Amino acid sequence: HPRSVAIIGVSTSEDSWVNKNFYRAILDFGFPGPVYPINPRGGELKGIKVYPSLKDVPGPVDYALCALPVALAKQCLLESIEKGVKMLVFYSAGFSEKDEEGLLKEKEFRNLARASNTRILGPNCMGLYYPGERFSYSPFFPREAGDVSYLSQSGGNSAELVEMVAYRGVRFSKVISYGNAIDINETELLDYFGKDDETRIITAYIEGIRDRNFFPALREASSRK
Question: What gap in Å lies between CA 67 and CA 65, rounded to an integer?
């Protein structure tokens, strides 16, 4: 339930993928809270002030999305922790799915996050689609809310499923693309959806389970949903 959002890595000089999807989606859906685009150059984007960094944002940030290259991802995390960001979503790729160095980065990021009050979704993910709160990572998703929730390790699959089943009248309560799951994982999401009053049906796309608590969480969720 984010009350404010920062998108780190927008472009002020061109209509980039981040601008056309993450940033446009937040504006098109009519998210009611403050939106803070971040780019070191500053400036203005679609009438909204662009801030050079998270440190320059005047108000609190609940949800931040990092769309910076992997080389700048640690800086993004450290600034988010300093700012008191509640949820940091790493769209950035190039971690454990790439090589051993990426795996070491994930371990470092996990340790930094768990020593703070900032949670991490990802890396290598899309984040949250929650039409009831007018929040989305794609401007092409339905605006109407439903009672199906979906946890997806794949960002591409999460987006394709939402668009494909929309033609059959399926609407979602929440979709969470969680990527490499260095902090928030499939077990925690399944447990949340199992207790969520806005969720009647839980769907999932999971590429690998590393948490021994997953099956107890699955049994518990299945008894409710």
Answer: 6
Specify the pairing of strand 63-66 against strand 48-49. unpaired
Q: How many CB atoms lie within 10 A of CB 206?
A: 16
Q: Confidence band (pLDDT; 50, 70, 90) for 218? A: very high
Spatial CB neighbours of 99, under 8 Å, sequence gap ≥ 6: none
Give the C-alpha separation, 120 to 115, whole Å: 12
And the tokens for 167? Answer: 């033609």
Confidence class of residue 162 from pLDDT cuts 50, 70 and 90? very high
Predicted TM-score of the model (pTM): 0.95
